[in-house]
């Protein structure tokens, strides 16, 4: 029997003699259920922690696989001939033919020569360095985004496929620009510029490739943000209108995206300058001068794209904040 000191509720029931015993049992059962729910929550927290730890270890292995794939691709490209690069040169040439209407013929160990023998799509036009950089950017970004989760292995081949398709588009666009730069009309108009034809070609390549890398990053970020927002709505059961927090989120997303814009710049610098810097000590004469010129172009050219983008997004973020504050008043 419970006394007043053990369970005060029973004492109150005895005094009133108006609360039936089933009601008292229900009340006690409700309290017991609450206690079990709290204990279950603590156990669930431990299971979540274990899952997060396993996800981190899995991420380390996936990171190693990604880096090994990039290194293997770089090693293969360093000694590959045009014959070994037809898996990327052939579709690029087909796209160029489709846009320009010019026919190209493959010449063994040389590349694809135009019908008028004035332009060669060689191994250096394969864009394998851009392919490697895009693959690293997409896969590492996804790996960091889901670093505390058990990320499926399929994201690696998906990143490789997207990087390959982006490389075909970037290669085609760069070759089209190079063809335009070689035209007599453009050559005569740029004969008095500060850049030599070789420097102009280098600037054009860096500008086009980093521009497409930045575009690929922005598109992938939009997809990741939209996928995460949709999954959050499904979990929360909010398939209808957006909440007030979601309506005030665009400016924060824009500022976060602006901060993350430095990520493709870091990946680009790492892939285009790491090995050349390691070999710089062994370069002498004209090779050393050419390297330092290449270094200056690689460091400066991407900033011509990053700085305007940062300014544009800053202005857009401020405008969005102003509109949100105006609607909430």
Structure description:
The protein is mainly α. It has helices at 8-16, 21-79, 86-100, 128-145, 155-181, 184-189, 197-236, 244-247, 250-260, 262-279, 286-300, 303-328; strands at residues 104-107, 111-114, 120-121. Strand 2 and strand 3 form a beta hairpin. Helix 2 (21-79) packs antiparallel against helix 4. The termini are far apart.
**Rg over alpha carbons:** 30 Å
- How much helix, percentage-wise, in residues? over 70%
* Strand elements, count: 3
Low-pLDDT segments: 1-18, 21-26, 35-44, 238-251
Major sheet: order of its strands?
1-2-3
Please state roughly what percent of the residues sit in beta strands, choosing from under 5%, 5-15%, 15-25%, 25-35%, 35-45% or over 45%. under 5%
Q: Note the gap between the termini.
A: 61 Å
Question: Topology of this structure?
Answer:
Blueprint: H1 8-16, H2 21-79, H3 86-100, E1 104-107, E2 111-114, E3 120-121, H4 128-145, H5 155-181, H6 184-189, H7 197-236, H8 244-247, H9 250-260, H10 262-279, H11 286-300, H12 303-328
Antiparallel strand pairs: 1-2, 2-3
Helix pairs in contact: 2-4, 3-5, 4-5, 4-7, 4-10, 5-7, 9-12, 10-11
Summarize the model shown:
The chain is mainly alpha-helical and 329 residues long.
Supply the key terms.
globular, 12 helices, disordered N terminus, 75% helix, mainly alpha, 329 residues
């Amino acid at each position: 029997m419970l006394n007043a000191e053990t369970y005060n509720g029973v004492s109150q029931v005895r005094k009133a003699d108006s609360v039936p015993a089933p009601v008292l049992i229900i009340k006690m059962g409700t309290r017991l259920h609450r206690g079990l729910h709290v204990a279950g929550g603590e156990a669930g927290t431990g299971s979540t922690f274990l899952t997060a730890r396993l996800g981190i270890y899995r991420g380390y292995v996936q990171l190693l696989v990604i880096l090994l794939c990039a290194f293997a691709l770089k090693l293969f490209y360093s000694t590959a001939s045009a014959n070994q690069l037809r898996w990327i040169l052939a579709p690029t040439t087909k796209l160029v033919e489709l846009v320009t209407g010019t026919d190209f013929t493959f010449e063994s160990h040389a590349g694809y020569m135009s019908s008028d023998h004035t332009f060669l799509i060689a191994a250096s036009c394969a864009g394998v360095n851009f392919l490697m950089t895009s693959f690293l950017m997409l896969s590492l970004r996804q790996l960091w985004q889901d670093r505390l989760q058990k990320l499926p292995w399929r994201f690696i081949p998906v990143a490789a496929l997207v990087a390959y398709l982006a490389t075909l588009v970037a290669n085609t666009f760069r070759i089209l620009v190079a063809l335009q730069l070689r035209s007599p009309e453009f050559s005569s108009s740029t004969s008095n510029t500060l850049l030599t034809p070789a420097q102009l070609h280098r600037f054009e390549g860096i500008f086009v490739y980093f521009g497409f890398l930045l575009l690929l990053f922005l598109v992938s970020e939009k997809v990741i943000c939209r996928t995460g927002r949709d999954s959050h709505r499904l979990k929360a059961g909010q398939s209808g209108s957006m909440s007030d927090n979601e309506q005030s989120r665009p400016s924060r997303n824009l500022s976060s995206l602006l901060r993350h814009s430095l990520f493709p710049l870091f990946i680009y610098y790492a892939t285009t300058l790491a090995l050349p810097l390691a070999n710089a000590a062994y370069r002498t004469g004209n090779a050393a001068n050419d390297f330092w010129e290449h270094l200056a172009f690689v460091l400066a050219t991407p900033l011509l794209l990053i700085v305007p983008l940062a300014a544009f997004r800053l202005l857009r973020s401020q405008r969005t904040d102003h509109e949100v504050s105006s609607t909430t008043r």
